[in-house]
Amino acid sequence: MWSDASTIAEGDLVIVWQTREAIQPLVIEPGKELQLRFGVYSHADLIGIPFGSKVASRNGKGFIHILRPTPELWTLALPHRTQILYVADISFITSYLNIRPGSKVIEAGTGSGSFSHSLARTIGPTGHLYTFEFHQQRAEKARAEFERHGMAGTVTLAHRNVCKDGFELVDLADAVFLDLPAPWEAAPHAYGAMRKDRMSRICCFSPCIEQVLRTVTALNDAGFSDITLYEVLLNPLEVSPVPTPLPIAHAVARLQAAEGRKEERRQKQIAKAARDREVKEKDGDAVAAGVKRTHDEAGTPDSEEGIAPKRARSEQESAHASAPEVDQPEVPFMKPQHEVRGHTSYLTFACIRPSLPVT
Amino acid sequence: MLSPDTIQAGHTVLVRMPSGEQKSVKLEQKGQISLGKFGSFKGSLLFGHPYGLTYEILSPTEIRVMPPKRLDDFGDVDATAETNELIVDDTTSQTLTHDEIEKLKQAGMGTEAIIQAQISQHSAFELKTAFSKDKYKKRKEAKFLKAVTVLEPTLFTVAEHLFNKDHTKMRDLRSDALAHMLTLSNVAPGKRVLVVDDVSGLLVAGILERLGGTGRLLSITDIESPPSYSALTFFNYDQTLVSSCLASLNWAMTDREFTPFVPPPPEEKDVRTDRQRQRVSKRAQASKEVQDVREDLWSGDFDALLVASVHEPHSIIAHLAPYLRPSAPVVVHSPYPEPLSRAQALLRADPSWLGPTVHAPWMRQHQALPGRTHPMMSMSGTGGYVLSATKVYVHRFVQFVC
After folding, report:
1. Does a structural domain hold residue B23?
2. Residues B117 and B255 in one domain
3. Disordered: where is this region (chain A) (predicted)?
């Protein structure tokens, strides 16, 4: 499955990571060019560099990361033919079904092959995956893909409707995974295909609770035991650098200082009003003396002239007050993301208890 | 295969009792499995059996395999007309006394028969709903039935067992969190993996299982002597396969500048007996082995790093990063969010790391019974937090253009 060499060679599959949202697969073909939002890259330039390289574009528009493919990266990058399984479900199902190197596993349907890749990785060369897809075009695409990814020795794909025609496997599978619209129709077939000399396990993947209820009954009727139901999620958390929150004493001090300045200003205003009154009284004397003044001539009236600079000063003061000598280094704070996945599917598990060997 | 097909002498098995409690027992050739009020039986009775069977304890020398429990058929659940309208909550409805039950037991009456006797003496039993009758029977069974299940030691069952027994000791590494770590780190047969495990070896066990007996697992420890991972005992792994994969090194030895103190070989005249000679060669062998493991670490090219440690995560990553291949995943578990948010911020500011992300695994189990399907009334509140990132090789052609 995929190259294990340190450096990239012609024909290798690589994963091009531009951003978290823009991840795509690429097969290296010399002579071709890759045109992206973050620049233009020639395939030939990528040959010989290590997997996992950060590469700058030829036209200086940015850089990308060229990663070694893993089933998880493939899941993020793959061309979706169907709704795919996400990593939280994939890892939990693998663990609960006790899938490990050497396991014989049945999967139906194949879909976009996201889980197939992960299973092939985990069971390794000593295990085997039998995967079934009832949609012909999807089956052919998946088959070609498994071939290209060097999985042909580990994965057998059949184009078949397992609900109708079963698996044509007997007492073989350690684990069965059913991602079908009506898993209850396939449950009896699955029972026949699973081994009985050791514990074997099944998982049915259904988004709706009504499907689960029918599945539970069908599994019980087919002879499965230990039926249970799980939901799993991986809740993403976002980390952002936030200035260390200030103690409330800081707010107390700032507000009290502002209060003090307000009082100071009030006193000044009172003093100024007193002065103005004096001036007015003098002016009044002048008017009485016949000196005429109009607004036009005077421009801005006295009162406004007095306030404007005062406001500017008070802004300066408050700016000064909100940034006193406090150490406020940034700290990485973490919180759950605003919008997260709330549900993927219900995972209905059951098992076949082994029977004692006849002695 | 890494793990055995059947139960053998010397295995450690997990036994689940009717009460739901689990106990780990080491099976000796002649040992007894004692389960308190549920009885006891000879461990050798299990030898050669596959894992996962339920037994009824008939006597200390006799056990009987029980068929697996099926879901009870309640028929049309809407048709249960009974309600608890007329049920009075007092102790007079059960007329069979504790002493009478003990007498029945001593007279050799079976569990099922005792439960039947209790039901027939229960004046209000018929007033109960079908669901409530079922609940009553189950409660009595948990109390009296001598049925035990020998669990298959899978990664999932062992992780659940250790987590339920002492989640603090396991640093809140829940079964689902462990599963995510193993997937995100892309562990597979043949890979070279670095691990820092302060969770009794559960992470080590998980990686060993995914390596399937091939590849290399190098465990970095903070103790002087080689680690003894208690979680490993549950799996009864093939010891030859384990020791061909697993090696350990303490932090002091990871330092290239550090030269461990090797006592000079004693002079020829001081080594007189065979025993002394053996000791000298053993010591030389041990220090050579340590040196080999050091060389292996320094040769680098590791495919993944997994961490569940008491130590500060970023310093661990920084210390071991030189030995990871570019594109290698790093996955760190912590019971606390703070160390991971700090490590995430540091990795994000460092161009040699890509996509550092923190996730909180969430898992909810449901009761799946016809007509009574609902999430469990209580669940685990945390399985810890998982940080993952990918190591990047900053190519010499990279120029940062705005």
Report:
1. no
2. no
3. 257-331
Measure A197 CA to nearest chain B CA, in Å.
7
Domain stop point among B142, B168, B199: B142
Q: Write out residues 76-135 of B within 8 Å (CB-CB) of A.
A: none
Q: What is the set of domains in chain A, with CATH numbers?
A: 13-69 (3.10.330.20), 73-236+341-352 (3.40.50.150)
DSSP conformational letter for A81: S
Whether B21 is covered by a domain: the verdict is no
3-state helix, strand, coil in chain B (%, to 5): 35, 25, 40
Same domain? For B353 and B242 the reply is yes
- CB spacing of A336 vs B360 below 8 angstroms: yes
Q: In this structure, is residue B44 part of a structural domain? A: no
**B338 and B284 share one domain:** yes
Examine the domain organization and report whether B112 and B164 are in the same domain: no
Handedness of CA B180, B181, B182, B186 (dihedral sign): positive
Does B311 reside within a domain?
yes
Contact assignment for B370 to A100 by CB distance below 8 Å: no
- Same domain, yes or no: B207 and B325: yes
Chain B positions in Cβ-Cβ contact with residue A230 (cut-off 8 Å) = 363-366
CB contact under 8 A, A241 and B345: yes
Domain range for B94 is 77-142
B15 is written with which tokens?
């036994």
Distance from CA of B188 to the nearest CA of A (A): 6
Smallest Cα distance from A76 to chain B, Å:
12
Show the CA angle centred on residue B207, arms to residues B206 and B212, nearest 5°.
Answer: 100
Give the list of residues 6+ apart from residue B66 with CB closer than 8 angstroms, or none. B54, B55, B56, B147
Contact B370 A20 (CB under 8 A): no
| Contact assignment for A54 to B370 by CB distance below 8 Å | no
Provide the domain count of chain B. 2
Min distance A21 CA to chain B CA atoms (Å)? 11
Please tell me the distance from the alpha carbon of residue A64 to that of residue A72, in angstroms, as a whole number: 19
Nearest to B344 among A70, A233, A332 (CB): A332
The answer on B292 and B179 residing in a single domain is yes
Q: What is the DSSP string of A106-149?
A: EEE--TTSHHHHHHHHHHTTTSEEEEEESSHHHHHHHHHHHHHT
Q: What is the pLDDT along chain A (359 residues), one digit of tens a residue?
A: 898 999 999 999 999 999 988 999 999 999 999 999 888 999 999 999 999 999 988 878 889 999 999 999 998 888 776 777 889 999 999 999 999 999 999 999 999 999 999 999 999 999 999 999 999 999 999 999 999 999 999 999 999 999 999 999 999 999 999 999 999 999 999 999 999 999 999 999 999 999 999 999 999 999 999 999 999 999 999 999 999 999 999 999 999 999 999 999 999 999 999 999 999 888 777 666 655 554 444 444 444 444 444 444 454 455 444 445 678 889 999 999 999 999 999 999 999 999 886 65
Please state the residue numbers annotated as binding site of A for S-adenosyl-L-methionine.
133, 179
B193 in contact with chain A, both atoms CB, cutoff 8 A: no
B199 and B316, same structural domain?
A: yes
A243-267 burial, b if ≥16 CB within 10 A, otherwise e?
eeeeeeeeeeebeeeeeeeeeeeee
With an 8 Å Cβ cutoff, are B179 and A94 in contact?
yes
Within 39-58 of B, beta carbons closer than 8 Å to A belong to: 49-54
**Could you tell me the CATH number of the domain that includes residue B294?**
3.40.50.150
Is residue B99 located within the same domain as residue B235?
no
